[in-house]
Amino acid sequence: MTRLDRYLFRQLGVTLLAVTIGLAALVWLTQSLRFIELVLDRGLSLAVFIELTGLLLPSFFAVILPITTFVVVLFTYVRLTADRELVVMRAAGLSDWRLARPALLVAAVATGLCLFMQLWLVPVSHAAFRSWQFEIRNEMAAVLLQEGVFSALGEDLTVYARRRDADGTLRGILVHDTREPGAPVTIMAQQGRLISGPAGPRVTLLNGVRQQLDPATPTRPARLSTLSFAENSLDLAESGRNEPEAPRNRDSRERFVPELLYPNPAENLPERDIVKFRAEGHGRLAGPFTALSFAMVGLAVALASSFRRYGDWRPALIGVGIVVTLLALGLSIGNLAARDNRFVPLIWLHALAPALGAAWVLSGSPGLPRRRVQPAAEG
């Protein structure tokens, strides 16, 4: 790389790193608010919350990196034009492709990072996130129970413990269970202890009363049945009290590309999911190339525009409009391909066609008007 290449590459690389990290942090902050209840209501530590939501960052980076690459390339070259630096470089005889070389190198690095994330890091991190989230909801009820607080373990189970001793014994327990439709159960016990089992956490209750409201039938009204017990056991997992724990279904983001393109027949997936997975697989493969395509769109718009002494906002506006249109088109194509795989070629066309169009513009654009030397008149 020449000194000029290093100068442009350094500006593009540092700006891209700062903008990408800043935007990813902003997206992470807004998305992590959905899980803040794990800290406020369920007693998880802040470190666990940060580690859990941090597993979402690879997905954010994979989505925003093509966009930030375009933004950085476009506005860096527009600024260079406004500062007359491109004028000097062109006066030195540099062509548009020569000026675009550092930006293309940055875009190639961004494309490689996107490929790495989409092919390996995103499914690994998302699988870890889903597994941990499932464990918190089904296996960590012992952690989520707090003394003196009505703890909601799912949407249909609430547990209250007046006190929790140092050895883990719960005192003054109240359980309200609505997992059986039409027959809510309320259990009060003097004490109990949490036990981890193969189907999830269970609580063993001692010296209590079980009250269940039996629904009304055509022959009798609803009635309340009361049962005193010396010992009773209750399943706290969300999967239900008397049902075996169902295996966790893996969504498309947890699967690697070969699993998406060629699903395992043993899973007996419905045809709708198979079509969706294939579209997701092609989207994973083609998506990273939008980083290169969007960067070339930014280069084509910035370098093909003519120089204006007092600045020109039109290249930035045109470039942003083109990429926003491409993003909206990409969402539409992805939805079409997820319903019908005959539209899958459009995913690749959307990813590669902007790069080809930008290359054509860069090859044929006149750039700044150059002086032509007039031959001396004879005689």
What does this protein look like?
It comes from Teichococcus globiformis. It is found in: Cell membrane. Keywords: Cell membrane, Membrane, Transmembrane, Transmembrane helix. It is a multi-pass membrane protein. The protein is 55% helix and 16% strand. It has helices at residues 3-32, 37-40, 46-54, 57-82, 85-91, 96-138, 141-144, 257-261, 271-286, 289-304, 314-339, 344-364, and strands spanning 151-152, 157-164, 169-177, 185-197, 200-214, 223-235. A hairpin with a 4-residue loop joins strand 1 and strand 2 (157-164).
Name a few traits of the molecule.
single chain; 379 residues; alpha+beta; 2 domains; six-stranded antiparallel β-sheet; 55% helix; disordered C terminus; transmembrane; membrane; LptG/LptF_permease; LPS export ABC transporter permease LptF; LptF
